[in-house]
Design goal:
Strand order of the largest sheet: 3-6-11-14-17-19-21-23
Radius of gyration: 15 Å
Distance between the termini: 27 Å
Low-confidence stretches: 1-11, 68-74, 97-103
Order of helices and strands: EEEEEEEEEEEEEEEEEEEEEEE
Structural class: mainly beta
Strand content: 35-45%
Amino acid sequence: MQDVDPGPSVSLGRVTVYQNVNTPGANVKLTTSDVLLADNEINALIIDGNNIDLTAAGFNQLTIGNLTTIGNTTVGGIIASRGSNNAVDVPLLNFGNGGLSTNASADPLFLVESGSLHVSSTLIASFNGNGTVFPALRKERPGNLILSGDSTASLQGTVTVNQGTLIVQNSGALGTADNTAGNGTVVSTLAAIVLDGSIAGAVNVGMSV
């Protein structure tokens, strides 16, 4: 699966073997619902099908993404979804660099090919590279990404919607976005952002187009 929309091109490469979500360092492909049994680190997550839900056995953290440099951009933390009504419902979704104990974060990348992907997790992404550069969450492809978790204190950096629709269902879903350098929300002409009517309180969007 490859991202060919605006922004750095990203590919998982030629993956011939997929493993389950409880295998450390795995490229994970879900075709049925599954349960995260404990904290784990994986390389990438693909959800392929309809009505697939990734849940957790407890208050567990899933770390996604080894850092990869493409051009001058560090990317990682890839979650791809093909199908409708898919969901990630683990409590904590950490876009690290392959190490739970490190301070670096990959740039979170959501590829929603079709239908919708609902993420209720708290997203964690603070610094990347040398610890001074904020990461940039990107939404690509035509599908809908729904964020309903509270990431107020844990998601820093920009949020860019290049294609499709980002639906915000929590006032803290976009983290610290405040329209300052490194903390704004960017929506391209090919995309849209929707603030769900059930939100309680103000949404910190800080949007530019």
